[in-house]
Amino acid sequence: MTLYLSWIRLARNPSAQALSPLLAPADPAARRSAQHNLLWSVFADGPDRRRDFLWREEPDGSFLTLSARKPTETDLFQPHRIREFAPQLSVGDRLEFQLRCNATRTEKTGALSTGGKEKKRHIDLVMDMLHALPGRRDLPEGSESHRGPERMRLAREVGQAWLSRQGDKAGFRVLDAEVLDYSTEVLPGHRGPRKGQPQFGILDLAGRIELTEPSGFLNALGRGFGRAKAFGCGLMLIRRAP
Predict the structure, then answer these.
(1) Cα(234)–Cα(102) distance, integer angstroms
(2) What are the residue ranges spanned by the domains of the chain?
(3) How many Cα atoms sit within 13 Å of 56 on the Cβ side?
(4) Please, which pLDDT band fits residue 191 given cuts at 50, 70 and 90?
(5) Which strands make up the sheet holding 3-8, listed edge to edge?
(6) Residue among 84, 39, 85 nearest 58 (CA)
(7) What span, in angstroms and rounded, lies between the C-alpha atoms of 189 and 36?
(8) What is the 3-state secondary structure (H, E, C) of the chain?
(9) pTM for the whole thing?
(10) Strand partners, 173
(11) How do 199-211 and 236-240 pair as beta strands?
(12) Rounded Cα gap, residues 63 and 8, in angstroms
């Protein structure tokens, strides 16, 4: 299967810039939902089309996408920069990577849906571990500052272990991996009180991997890693390690 890596950015013409507050709102949850819809505009070619692209937002506000089809050109965007993504990989190749991901595990609930299928739930791994940390009200006076480092320590442990398991299934071995950031966001469309609102966690990982099964790795790369792919997670960027 041919894949395409594309650089996509909003046009600088007045009509596109006038829509910028709607296309990239300040609220993080609304922003990710709007960005997903924005990118759908260059990939959705019919009402029955299912998402077959991965994306991530870059620090400068542009987007990188990996897709099975080339994005279409529209007046909302600058001309896309598109290149065919077909790296020649071999067993033992070492790659540097960056990955923004939502790390989860799936559990059976024992219940059935109205259609008779077994219901499952997806557990956000870092968030699940963070529930064990004492809350601000439970901390001794003067110890609030320790919660941040402990939060990142857990994110690092969980993220590294999750990535190693991904590698076992996707044809690579983790040589080293660092958690650059961990954040949580409210699922788009939530209305109601802040307490109990549905959230998902976002890990930014970077490091080096060694390939054990190149064809399996490329297939996994095209599918993406983890969940929340509609919200800009799952796309692994790679380059050869020096």
Answers:
(1) 7
(2) 3-85, 94-240
(3) 19
(4) low
(5) 53-57, 63-67, 3-8, 81-85
(6) 39
(7) 13
(8) CCEEEEEECECCCHHHHHCHHHHCCCCHHHHHHHHHHHHHHHHCCCCCCCCCEEEEECCCCCEEEEECCCCCCCCCECCCEEEEECCCCCCCCEEEEEEEEECEEEEEEEEECCCCCEEEEEEEHHHHHHCCCCCHHHCCCCCHHHHHHHHHHHHHHHHHHHHHHHHHHHCEEEEEEEEEEEEEEECCCCCCCCCCCCEEEEEEEEEEEEECCHHHHHHHHHHCCCECHHHCCCCEEEEECC
(9) 0.84
(10) 210
(11) unpaired
(12) 5
Write the single-letter amino acid at 181. Answer: D
Determine the average pLDDT of the residues in 82-110. Answer: 92
| CATH number for the domain running over 94-240 | 3.30.70.1210
Rounded to an integer, the average pLDDT of 36-42 is: 89
Tens digit of pLDDT for each residue in 49-83?
Answer: 788 899 999 999 899 999 999 999 988 899 999 99
Compute CA distances 114 → 35, 106, 109, 122, 135, whole Å. 33, 20, 14, 19, 38
pLDDT value, residue 14: 84
Q: Which amino acid type is present at position 165?
A: R
Amino acid residing at 32: R
> How far apart, in whole angstroms, are the C-alpha atoms of residue 213 and residue 209?
12
Asked, colleague to colleague, whether 3-85 and 94-240 share their fold, the answer is: yes
- Which class in CATH covers the domain with range 3-85? alpha beta
Look at residue 137 and tell me whether its pLDDT is greater than 50.
Answer: no
Please say whether the beta carbons of 202 and 100 come within 8 A.
yes
pLDDT of residue 89: 96
What's the chain's Rg over C-alpha atoms? 20
